[in-house]
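Tokens for chain A. Residues wanted.
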């Protein structure tokens, strides 16, 4: 056991959400989605990042990203959450050919009465954002000078991204989360909770995990005097160590579409890519890929985005029904977590005002790493003692 690394106010106080906006969401690479969401010229989807409307848009061969705010009076290029459109503002028609600089103003003389100035953009443009595509994944970065992608993700991860190949058809759902986004990011790094929270839903497909549970005996404790546990290593972990791969043996049998898709990742494993800060990406036997994104909207709410994508098809088939049923079962598992996490949120909010001692287990090292980074690098607070 260890003395807890986290402070409950990290999960409910807007002060910390603001530091996260500055030092995480507007600084680091964020997984935006799968390339198959923007297959054709003009396809786009929106990603809301701390209130900023970010558009990921395919223009010709290129996938670009920009803040969807027109430099005229704040109009938008896209009025929906996803669709197909030209890079033209929907309020008064200003055009931004490559999703960057202003290239056309309809009824230009209404805007500029000086002939000499009429054909000049004077540097007006959308705010372009850095994009990095690898395998079927699109990443965006909101910083002016983004850090190198390799500084955030290790070689093994980047290699697996590449090996995922292309994605074909996909489905995307969004719903509201009514707790702090970090509870989800930490929960997916919590290797023990599936045994308790997802007992039914996981037992048949993850036999190794269930076996470990059945063999590990309950330790009966004697009640002893209050005593401090050791503290977790207080140094701030390297950013690159916060994202990693976790493999679990998977036994799902075979499915009717197995021979119709290019299964380029292992067939007998649930391959989980935990991507700091806010993404959980996984391959289920190479059969399908899922991406969960936790996008904060306040200190205590977030948008949950779930995307399921099929790998490249060897033989074309209509996968809509299949994707819907996969999404439904994924959603069921997500709801199992949310029942608990909502209560955890209530407790952390209550305890932020009071003195209460939390404790963490040795198995929680990846979660404690996550928390130490938040505490040290994001909030820049020295580790404190809560007693
Ligand atoms: S707000 Fe975009 S053209 Fe007017
Ligand atoms: Fe879970």
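Reply:
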């Amino acid at each position: 056991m260890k003395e807890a690394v986290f402070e409950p106010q990290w999960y409910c106080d807007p002060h910390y959400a603001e530091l996260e906006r500055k030092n995480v969401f507007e600084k680091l690479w964020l997984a935006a989605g799968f390339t198959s969401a923007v297959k054709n010229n003009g396809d786009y989807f929106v990603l809301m990042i701390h209130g900023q409307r970010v558009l990921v848009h395919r223009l010709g061969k290129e996938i670009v990203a920009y803040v969807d705010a027109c430099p005229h009076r704040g109009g938008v290029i896209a009025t929906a959450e996803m669709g197909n459109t030209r890079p033209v503002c929907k309020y008064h028609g200003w055009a931004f050919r490559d999703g960057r600089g202003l290239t056309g103003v309809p009824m230009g003389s209404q805007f500029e009465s000086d002939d000499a100035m009429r054909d000049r953009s004077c540097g007006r443009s959308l705010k372009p954002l850095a994009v990095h595509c690898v395998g079927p994944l699109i990443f965006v970065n909101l910083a002016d000078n983004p850090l190198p992608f390799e500084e955030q993700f290790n070689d093994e991860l980047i290699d697996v991204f590449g090996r995922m190949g292309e994605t074909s058809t996909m489905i995307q759902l969004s719903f509201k989360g009514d707790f702090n986004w970090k509870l989800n990011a930490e929960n997916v790094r919590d290797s023990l909770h599936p045994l308790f929270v997802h007992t039914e839903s996981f037992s048949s497909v993850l036999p190794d995990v269930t076996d470990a549970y059945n063999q590990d005996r309950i330790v009966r404790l004697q009640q002893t005097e209050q005593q401090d546990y050791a503290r977790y290593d207080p140094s701030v972990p390297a950013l690159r160590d916060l994202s990693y791969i976790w493999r679990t043996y998977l036994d799902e049998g075979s499915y009717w579409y197995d021979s119709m898709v290019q299964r380029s990742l292992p067939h007998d494993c649930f391959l989980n890519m935990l991507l700091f800060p806010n993404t959980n990406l996984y391959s289920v036997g190479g059969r399908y890929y899922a991406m969960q994104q936790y996008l904060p909207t306040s200190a205590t709410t977030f948008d949950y985005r779930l995307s399921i994508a099929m790998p490249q098809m060897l033989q074309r088939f209509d996968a809509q029904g299949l994707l819907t049923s996969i999404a439904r079962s994924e959603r069921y598992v997500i709801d199992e977590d949310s029942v608990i996490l909502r209560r955890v949120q209530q407790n952390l909010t209550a305890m932020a005002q009071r003195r209460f001692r939390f404790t963490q287990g040795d198995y929680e090292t990846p979660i404690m790493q996550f928390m130490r980074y938040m505490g040290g690098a994001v909030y820049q607070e020295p580790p404190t003692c809560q007693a």
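The longest strand covers residues 167-177. The domain at 1-28+169-380 is CATH 3.90.380.10 (Naphthalene 1,2-dioxygenase Alpha Subunit; Chain A, domain 1).
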